[in-house]
Design a protein that fits this description.
This protein is mostly helical and 472 residues long. It has one domain (16-470): Orthogonal Bundle (Ribonucleotide Reductase, subunit A), CATH 1.10.620.20. 45% of the residues lie in helices and 7% in strands. It is built from eleven helices and seven strands. It has a three-stranded antiparallel β-sheet. Strands 3-4 form a two-stranded antiparallel sheet. Helix 5 (202-223) packs antiparallel against helix 6. Bound molecules: fe (ii) ion (2 copies).
Length: 472
């Protein structure tokens, strides 16, 4: 078991005290991070006491501590999950060999790119959401937003630790660049396109945490299988925090839907009461689900094949032994491929090349379970409306389906039909304007904006009307 040092300037369980050079380098990066937080983190709430969860260890249960804290004083720490000392590589070409504690030269660039791409999304989402606090529908939700934000900040720390520790001067440069790129910056934007748009309403926020944070879960889970042990252990621990982000999203969309169903049950129209009509909410779901699928990368990818072969990135739950062939050499994957004459054909591709598609399939199955839960709740409210997840080919801008048009049901469409009908399926400017008009700020404990139902429970067993954020 690792020893947790909570007294250090940077709380950690990686033995920073014994590595003075590394400790000094990270302590030098720390003020730049705090400065970034103050400039581009949540706007205006740095003086409020927020009831937040802080990671204080990695053991089963009791890994976190809840208390009031001002966000700039949050104890961002570096924690790696504990793992067996004799862990072996369990997929790819080098099965059975010991895992690596240092980066092998041949994989240096590839691993650095994986870490930088993942790391860049963490501060990016904080920047995207920085104005949301001003329109929070309740103190409970305001706290949830800040909980997600501070933990994304900690995830950045996790990646920066790896860069500083294992990638020398290049790694230190990359760590600095994490604070130099900014979401939506014309000259120096965030790496992935989806992280360059502001999230300025709570419908987008809850859809983002449902669908985009869930992409994050699958990326982290595939890295948690990695043969590069420090990466596997750091991403493993990030997943424990990530679960809360996805719950925030799932519950948030569910609570919005429930509120609309309640209004409809009383014979009234959500659109006339500042609540969100369910077909409109479906359009936001369509947008965020399809945009998040784009983050998985091409369905047919030699890059993915090489990351798998090298043992850098595995399949979802690869270590649980649920796949027949841990080398993935013998099998093929049936990929639906659009043809130029407007059809979709099934094509067999080598399984290794389909690793992004395999991960995406696991993600889609997970999203389907979320939608089924929303639908059960709607039924319980006697509501006839049911959400539907669009087909994986719908509205894609990356991968084999980009450049082709598909309906949410997955039928091929010509351009004219798409132009005529896409407003039925994706949020229009009118939808966005309407949603914006519903965003009212509520700061009285236990009260909620009219478009969202209260949650069923509070964090850390606190009551719903707890003062989650204190304004002085
Ligand atoms: Fe994260
Ligand atoms: Fe997250």
């Amino acid at each position: 078991m690792s020893t947790v040092d909570l007294e250090a300037k940077i709380p950690n369980n990686v033995g920073l005290r014994d590595n003075k050079r590394l400790m000094m380098a990270l302590e030098k990066w720390q003020p730049a991070f705090i400065e970034w937080w103050k400039q581009l983190g949540p706007s205006d709430f740095n003086q409020n006491d927020i009831y937040l969860r802080t990671a204080v260890g990695v053991g089963q249960g009791g890994w976190a501590h809840f208390d009031y804290v001002k966000m700039p004083d949050y104890r961002w720490g570096i924690f790696l999950a504990d793992g067996p000392a004799d862990r072996k590589i369990h997929f790819g070409d080098n099965i059975g060999a010991p895992v690596w504690n240092e980066v092998p030269g041949e994989f240096r660039n590839r691993l650095r790119r994986l870490i930088v791409t993942q790391g860049d999304t963490e501060p990016a989402s904080v920047e995207q959401q920085r104005m949301l606090g001003h329109s929070a529908p309740s103190l409970y939700d305001l706290r949830s937003l800040f909980q997600v934000n501070v933990e994304e900040g900690r995830h950045l720390w996790a990646m920066v630790y790896l860069l500083h520790t294992h990638f020398g001067a290049d790694g230190r440069d990359e760590a600095e660049a994490m604070l130099e790129r900014h979401s939506g910056d014309d000259d120096n934007p965030r790496i992935l396109e989806a992280f360059n748009y502001p999230i300025d309403n709570w419908v987008d926020f809850f859809c983002f945490t449902t669908f985009t944070d869930r992409d994050g879960k699958y990326q982290l889970a595939s890295l948690a299988e990695s043969s590069f042990d420090p990466l596997a252990r750091t991403t493993q621990f990030m997943l424990t925090e990530e679960a809360y982000h996805m719950q925030t999203g799932e519950n948030g969309v569910g609570r919005i839907a429930r509120r609309s169903a309640e209004i409809m049950k009383e014979g009234r129209d959500p659109a006339k009461e500042g609540a969100i009509p369910l077909p409109m909410l479906q359009r936001f779901v369509n947008h965020w689900f399809s945009a998040s699928m784009d983050l998985f990368g091409g369905e047919d990818s030699t890059n993915a094949a090489e990351s798998f072969a090298g043992g850098l990135k595995g399949r979802y739950r690869e270590g649980d032994g649920i796949y027949k062939d841990p080398k993935a050499l013998e099998q093929t994957y049936k990929l639906q491929v659009p043809t130029d004459d407007g059809k979709v054909e099934e094509k067999d591709i080598p399984l290794r090349r389909a690793m992004n598609a395999v991960l995406l399939d696991a993600y889609i199955a997970d999203c389907s379970r979320i939608v089924a839960r929303w639908n059960r709740d709607l039924k319980a409210q006697d509501c006839e409306f049911q959400f539907a997840l669009p087909d994986h080919k719908f509205n894609r801008h990356q991968g084999v389906y980009s450049g082709f048009r598909f309906s949410p049901a997955g039928e091929v469409l010509d351009e004219a039909t798409w132009t005529h009908r896409h407003g039925e399926w994706l949020p229009s400017q009118d939808d966005r304007d309407y949603v914006k008009s519903c965003m009212v700020r509520v700061t009285e404990p236990g009260k909620f904006a009219n478009y969202i139902a209260p949650p069923s429970q509070g964090p850390n067993n606190q009551p719903i009307d707890f003062e989650y954020v204190k304004f002085h």
